UniProtKB/TrEMBL annotation:
Coiled coil: none annotated. This is Chitosanase. GO terms for biological process: carbohydrate metabolic process. It comes from Acrasis kona. Residues 1-17 form the signal peptide. Pfam families: Glyco_hydro_46. InterPro entries: Glyco_hydro_46 (IPR000400), Glyco_hydro_46_N (IPR023099), Lysozyme-like_dom_sf (IPR023346). One of its GO terms (cellular component) is extracellular region. Keywords: Signal. One of its GO terms (molecular function) is chitosanase activity.
Length: 256
């Protein structure tokens, strides 16, 4: 009986267009290109960019201002409370919503040291899943969006722009797209994705982030070059300069 229930759940998930594990990994690795310049999971990435977000760290390039780094370290505290990184929790809580980095001078040293423990890297991966991937996929399920490339794009949009109802955020951009071209009906999902990508580019430029529209144009290229189904273990997109084609491959191993 239990096996039947599991099989039924798998059928329902597939019917609602959820990405399989390989496609999810591909989505993550594609976004890695835009966040850290590589398809691998750069868990040890950490630097101060002086862009108003404080420190950036981790393979999704979360920052201290948004609270993303705080969330990861709070999860890590439950696994290894004696880690040096955990000692920064009080200060990390104080700087959320600000660009202040005072008192965090050892953050990158502690962060990189923590990545030597595979459990910390798993914490990062699970946070990206719970905080960004799953919410983006719920949006896709709610509107009946089943195209794998479109589902991957929702994740990338959520990573960069966050979720919400304003015109710059994922939920707001979905609403804007629906108001322009309707729901992503079967047989028209390529058109819907094309419209969403245009909406996202417009939102980025309006908000002052037009210099990052290469990540959206990379998806436009993928859409135009037959990558909609993300079949097999490799998908092609463009690198950040939009000049070179990048082969992104799922390996089944998040540790590299």
């Amino acid at each position: 009986m239990f096996l039947k229930v599991v099989l039924l759940c798998l059928i329902l998930v597939t019917a609602h267009g959820a990405l399989d594990e390989c496609q999810k990994e591909l989505a993550f690795r594609i976004t890695n290109i835009y966040e850290t310049g590589t398809t691998r999971f750069k868990f040890d990435y950490c630097q101060w960019l002086d862009d108003g977000g404080g420190y950036d760290a981790g393979f999704i390039s979360g920052n201290t201002a948004s609270g993303a780094i705080l969330a990861v370290v709070e999860r890590w505290e439950k696994i290894k409370p004696e880690d040096d990184l955990v000692t920064l929790l009080p200060r990390l809580r104080q700087v959320v919503g600000t660009s202040d980095v005072q008192g965090l001078e050892r953050l990158c040293d502690f962060w990189r040291a923590a990545t030597k423990d595979s459990r910390f890297n798993r914490v990062q991966y699970d946070y990206a899943t719970d905080g960004y991937y799953n919410p983006s996929q719920r949006h896709g399920a709610e509107i009946g969006l089943t195209m794998p490339l479109a589902r991957a794009q929702l994740y990338d949009a959520n990573i960069e722009q966050g979720d919400g109802d304003d015109e710059f955020s994922l939920g707001g951009m979905i609403k804007t797209t629906i108001s322009q071209v309707g729901m992503p009906e079967k047989g028209r999902q390529s058109d819907w994705l094309a419209a969403f990508l245009n909406v996202r580019i417009a939102a980025l430029h309006k908000k002052g982030y037009g210099n990052t529209d290469y990540r959206v144009k990379s998806y436009q290229w993928a859409l135009q070059h037959g990558q909609q189904k993300m079949q097999g273990k490799t998908v092609q997109v463009l690198e950040n300069g939009l000049q070179q084609v990048v082969n992104v491959t799922c390996t089944g191993d998040f540790s590299n």
